[in-house]
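Dear colleagues,

I hope this message finds you well. In preparation for our joint manuscript, I am sending the Transcriptional repressor (Thauera sinica) sequence together with its predicted structure, so that both groups work from identical material. I would be grateful if you could confirm receipt.
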Amino acid sequence: MTEISERFRDSGLAVTNCRLWIMESLIAAPGMRSTVESLFEALRHRGRRLSLSTVYAALRVMEAHHLVGRDLDGKKIIYWVPCTAAAGTLRFICRYCKAETTIHERTLHEALYRSAAEHGVAIGPNAPTLLITCQQCADRRPGVHKERRPPLPSR
Ligand SMILES: [Zn+2]
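The corresponding structure tokens are as follows:
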């Protein structure tokens, strides 16, 4: 089950194509926030032809079910996707001991999606996983930190 389906399931709101497309476009927006106008443009860009009033109506229903949040930025209405477990989640896995740590850091998560998008990579909705060497493993394996470095000059 995808993260988007989980969001709908948890909200108790049925998934329709229209709601699904809106959620996809909103999640893909920078920082997962967008004005209705930009969202409308993004939907058209993806070939999702919905009328502006349909988008507004769907957003209101989705807001009532806490699937999206709404802010007023000056005179502009901003819709955003709230942080759920998966939305701000990053996982670290140690390549050696396989220890897994899940962190919940929305700013970093968003920055990662944004910077990947700037490099032409669209990260899917599942939690990105970073392969690391934990400090314990690095301490236990003296050679680990030198793996990709040139050898030190001998004395
Ligand atoms: Zn480790």
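For the figure legend, we might mention the following. The beta strands are 33-35, 69-73, 76-80, 89-94, 100-104, 129-132. The chain has six helices and six strands.

With kind regards,
E.M.
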